[in-house]
């Protein structure tokens, strides 16, 4: 049994977005013992915060009256209000995660078959040759600047110094790897660093770091990096409007051109983020948000921020417009909003990136907040 102080602490953490996955599961389990269905309250339910709280309390008070367990009756108003506020924000998330497997009440019908994305990318060598990585067999692809470029049996792009000679500096040559919409790919760089590219992303990098004082790469789109430690040669990631410098760490950068904010999330280690106006040092679990030239730092759930790398869509109080942009990149679809206001509805939850588009849209429709129609490779939000 969980005591009241612990429940209050968990509720506050969830509302602030600082709750850990383990704490979230504990809080979910506690609430699940109280009611079979989540409490859902729309934003328009009351005209003021005080009125909203009072109406939430009235609903929960009715739940208490129906509940026979003594532990429920001992919970104070503040805990219940925190729990209700939680479900105002996260009812969609709970519905998706707890009920997504139940298709019995689903009346949606999509006839189009649109599969999820996969390992697809194009490699451009220093001599201009373009290779479709999905179609080519594993093995050595080329040798440039004393570095052997190959596709591994696991489908990764890998760079290795010939005879492990890391000191011989050949000419400074660059390769570019690009993922299309509906693609992702992993690269093992010659220094041992690893990079994962999300859909519609591009990474430009030197074939060899042997002659470089800094290991500099250029990113467009979204990438996750696990950087090999080398104190004498800092690792830099450049995007259009910022630079990230590290020695050895794990971090994610989201820098899509159709997003208003560039997000840099630190998973492990320490990084410094530069913009034209200011700079910030990040600690694990922090995210730098760059907008209009300025960087501000927030605490986030880093695991959620890199969910794409682990095969998950993770939405944390995101507007439907943002949600559908992520979906459109992965499934290579066009999204049209019949009502522009629908793009501002807020969603939270986790879904598998391996689902086909039909399954994913059905899960979103279960929230009751949106409906969809598929025409070819176009998804219309009704």
UniProtKB/TrEMBL annotation:
The entry's keywords: Membrane, Transmembrane, Transmembrane helix
Membrane-spanning parts: 79-98
FecR protein domain segment(s): 177-272
Source organism, top-level taxon: Bacteria
One Gene Ontology molecular-function label: sigma factor antagonist activity
Domain annotation Protein FecR C-terminal: ranges: 312-381
InterPro entries documented for this protein: FecR (IPR006860), FecR_C (IPR032508), Ferrdict_sens_TM (IPR012373)
Name of the protein in question: FecR protein
């Amino acid at each position: 049994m969980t005591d009241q102080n612990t429940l209050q602490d968990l509720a506050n953490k969830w509302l602030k977005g600082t709750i850990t996955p383990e704490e979230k599961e504990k809080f979910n389990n506690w609430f699940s013992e109280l009611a079979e269905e989540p409490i859902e309250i729309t934003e328009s339910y009351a005209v003021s915060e005080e009125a909203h709280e009072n109406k939430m309390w009235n609903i929960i008070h009715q739940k208490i009256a129906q509940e026979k367990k003594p532990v429920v009756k001992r919970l104070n108003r503040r805990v219940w209000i925190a729990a209700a506020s939680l479900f105002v924000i996260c009812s969609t998330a709970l519905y998706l995660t707890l009920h997504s497997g139940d298709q019995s009440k689903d009346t949606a019908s999509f006839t189009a078959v649109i599969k999820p994305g996969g390992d697809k990318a194009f490699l451009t060598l220093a001599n201009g040759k373009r290779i479709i990585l999905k179609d080519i067999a594993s093995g050595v692809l080329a040798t440039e600047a004393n570095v052997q470029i190959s596709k591994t049996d696991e489908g990764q792009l890998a760079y290795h110094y010939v005879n492990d000679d890391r000191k011989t500096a050949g000419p400074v040559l660059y390769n570019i790897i690009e993922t299309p919409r509906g693609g992702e790919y992993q690269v093992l760089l010659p220094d041992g660093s690893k990079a994962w590219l999300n859909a519609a992303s591009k990474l430009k990098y030197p074939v060899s770091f042997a002659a470089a004082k800094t290991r500099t790469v250029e990113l467009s789109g979204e990438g996750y990096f696990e950087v090999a430690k080398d104190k004498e040669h800092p690792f830099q990631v450049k995007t259009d409007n910022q630079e990230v410098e590290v020695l050895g760490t794990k971090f994610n950068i989201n820098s899509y051109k159709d997003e208003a904010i560039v997000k840099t999330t630190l998973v492990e280690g320490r990084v410094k983020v530069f913009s034209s106006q200011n700079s910030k040092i990040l600690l694990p679990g922090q995210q730098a948000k760059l907008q209009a030239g300025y960087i501000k730092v927030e605490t986030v759930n880093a695991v959620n921020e890199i969910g794409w790398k682990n095969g998950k869509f993770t939405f944390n109080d995101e507007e439907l417009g943002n949600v559908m942009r992520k979906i459109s990149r992965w499934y290579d679809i066009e999204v049209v909003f019949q009502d522009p206001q629908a793009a501002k509805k807020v969603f939270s939850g986790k879904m598998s990136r391996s689902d086909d588009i039909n399954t994913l849209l059905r899960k979103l429709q279960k929230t009751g907040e949106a409906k969809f129609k598929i025409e070819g490779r176009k998804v219309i939000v009704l």
